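Long-time lurker. I teach an intro course on protein structure, and each term I like to show students one example going from raw sequence to a predicted 3D structure in token notation. This year I'd like something fresh instead of my usual example. Would anyone be willing to generate the tokens for the chain below so I can use it in lecture? Attribution to the forum is fine with me.
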Amino acid sequence: MDTEAQPMERDRSSRPSDSGTPVPDTGGPEDRSRFALLRRAPRTPSGAPRGDASAGLSSWLPGGRISLTLLICLVFLLFLNTCVARPFEIPSGSMAQGLKIGDRVLVNKVAYRFGAGPQRGDVVVFDGTEYFGDADYIKRVVGVGGDRVVCCDREGRIEVNGRPVDESGFLYPGDSPSTVPFDVVVPDGRLFLLGDHRGASSDSRDHLGSPGGGMVPVERVVGRADWIVWPADRWTRLTRPDAYARVPAPDGAHG
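-- Reply from a regular --
Happy to contribute to a lecture. Here you go:
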């Protein structure tokens, strides 16, 4: 007769307590939810996880996360203003009636950074230092490098490369294309620029006898004015007039 006690499978439903009373077995770590095994990240006095970089930064700023958010927005706006776009306030009536004094336009600073240069009809903001004056100006491109610009033909129109340009869509009402006659060839890498309000604009016509002949280097262009953004009721996109799209390439150049 085998008197050796047979091993019995342990009842996993309960386990003895120190007092001898069985208590339910909650199981080992393998029986618990995985989430219960995750160690909680240590937290800062503010209650944010120590691994949160923004929490570390905000703890050094008065106002905490609100100040950090404002700082990030400011840095982003500075980046846009420096590299992508910038506002420009119209200082005079030289581009009326399309642009009025006090209008704010958004200048696209990347329009000409990837190979494309200013085109006839574009409205551009440029640094006029040494050419127009010590300030930024806004004018319309009438001639680019190689173009011959003449004023005026028998009907009083400006000609570019022998093609009359119909400026009636943007020229200030009552203005003639120019009261100053000229016949110029624009050097490569330069621009011939005129205001839309010819009677109130100091532009390339007024600097024909100055150094550079009134032609502004392309590298002085800040960017292309693409939108009127203020006042809100004047919000509109500035587009290139079709009249310039029909101007042929200068002699010896390819379209």
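Some talking points for your students: The helical segments are 34-37, 53-58, 65-84, 242-245. The longest strand covers residues 221-230.
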